[in-house]
């Protein structure tokens, strides 16, 4: 098994959630690391994948909102500083599509989630290094992970939707 590094300049962990029942708030986690080991990234079924995300690195481009998300109402980042994912099963769906199932832990709550993953291809960067690109997506119910804060709206509905779409875009290269 070979170890692979994430090119942080060409990768991102994004999320989005419905806001006030009419729009979406989008954000990223600015600080994360991963351990990716695979015999060949052209066949992810051989891979062992894990991520650690710094919960306090949440960035929605609103300092007040980010501070609320870091606080006890949501991530409680002081008490639960990391969000983790560890793959448990990877199934090939087609030549370039995979289902990556694993354990996602938020606030000490662990649930199995499956990321629909697409292999975007491989190439050689300007420095002669081989690179591989992937995009993965899943949707979780935030309340299942203890992220239950909300506020009712006078017009009906709630301030924050339950479903969180998570997208992981990766460019990796050999370690």
Description:
This protein is mainly beta and 175 residues long. 5% of the residues lie in helices and 58% in strands. It has one helix and eleven strands, in the order ββββββαβββββ. The protein has one helix at residues 63-70; strands at 2-6, 12-19, 23-29, 32-38, 48-54, 58-59, 82-94, 97-106, 109-124, 130-141, 160-174. Strands 1-4-5-7-8-9-10-11 form an eight-stranded antiparallel barrel. A hairpin with a 2-residue loop joins β8 (97-106) and β9 (109-124). The longest helix is centred in the middle third of the chain and has 8 residues, at 63-70. The protein is elongated. The termini are close together.
- Order of strands across the biggest sheet? 1-4-5-7-8-9-10-11
Question: Structural class given helices, strands, pairing?
Answer: mainly beta
- Could you tell me the radius of gyration in angstroms? 17 Å
Measured between the Cα atoms of the first and last residue, the distance is: 11 Å
Please give the count of helices. Answer: 1
Task: Give a count of the beta strands, DSSP E runs of length 2 or more.
Answer: 11
Low-confidence stretches: none
H-E order: EEEEEEHEEEEE
The largest β sheet comes out as:
8 strands, antiparallel, barrel
Fraction of residues in β-strands: over 45%
Helical percent range? under 10%
What does the overall shape look like?
Answer: elongated
Mean pLDDT: 92
